[in-house]
Design goal:
This protein is mostly helical and 60 residues long. Helices cover 87% and strands 0% of the residues. Keywords: Membrane, Transmembrane, Transmembrane helix.
């Protein structure tokens, strides 16, 4: 798994936890954390797909 994908997944997990904590405390700042979670999950998906495509191109 590419290193950037691992970092993006870590950021995604931490931002989901931060969003839950924020909502439990009654703050609507959790919306920002959820947006960050969505962005980082898309980045992880992109890096995984890019690595898969590059492996396929190298093997061909």
């Amino acid at each position: 798994m590419p290193r950037l994908a691992v970092y993006a997944l870590a950021v995604c997990a931490l931002s989901v936890v931060a969003a839950v904590v924020s909502f439990v405390q009654g703050s609507f700042l959790g919306v920002v954390w959820l947006l960050l979670a969505g962005l980082s999950s898309n980045m992880a998906w992109y890096y995984l797909r890019r690595a898969k495509a590059q492996r396929a191109a190298d093997g061909a």
